[in-house]
Amino acid sequence: MSSLNSCLKDTSQPDFTQNKPIIELPIGSSAGNGGGNSIAAAFTIDEVPSEYFIYVNYAAPEANDRDVVVTLAVDGAALDKFNQVNEKSYTLIPESSYTFSSNKVIIPAGQRKVKFPVKINTISLDPTKTYALPISITDGGGFTVSGNFGTLVSVISLKNKWDGVYTVSGTMLDQVNPLLTGDYPRTFHLVTQGPNTVAIYDADNKSFAHGILNDGGKTVYGSFSPVFTIDNETNSVTSAVNYYGQPAENTRAARIDVTGENKFTMSADGKVPVTFKVKYIMIQNGTDRTFFNETWTYKEARK
Hints:
elongated; seven-stranded mixed beta sheet; 4% helix; mainly beta; nine-stranded antiparallel beta sheet
């Protein structure tokens, strides 16, 4: 899969609150009350490590007159504090899943801001978890380290190339209850479950579900959300199972209807879906019950 090279926009302002120069990691939004400085970073799962960087800044009214060597380190204690203050439960990224070319970066004389490069090994991470890479300045090269911006927590989320927000149209036939009909068009998300799997998330119901109509009123099939497995080379769906178990406690399961196209059409560069045509079946008590025939049109990346 192709990598999303996640980098940070230069939107921060240098911290000139002190007369003497300070060294800082300025990108991100401070959570306040000791909560730390954070930024969101999304990556597409790929066997090739993703390039990433954070900024290191020399904050002062005048430019530095000499090279400044700044030392940085991953700071697990800072993440613990960030999680506690912000009521989060981000997982510290494993040491094997990131690489620094060096733990030092040089801010050359006359410059204020440089990039500190990191490589993220996305293929080794669990896409169902939200990781964090907390980096702190441990040595400001002879200058004071910022109290508010001395640490940056990069919050890492993972997506495969089919992940996204879609407009869905189609038909639905329930052979058990004719009052249950399709509710189209509607907005569904495909949410990454693994390098080659996505699950249906119903944005309206804010759950892994499939919205339908019951005699014209909105409802959902309980404990039913297909998880599709996709072939990376052909972008064809090879199987479907139920997110809640195959079968779930209510005996519902999912399978692909092989009479369908069951394939994603991708952009010219192969990185972004255009449409997804799929036919699948909800099984209940071991019998094919409901037949779906849908066309999914990609809208945007999922936030």
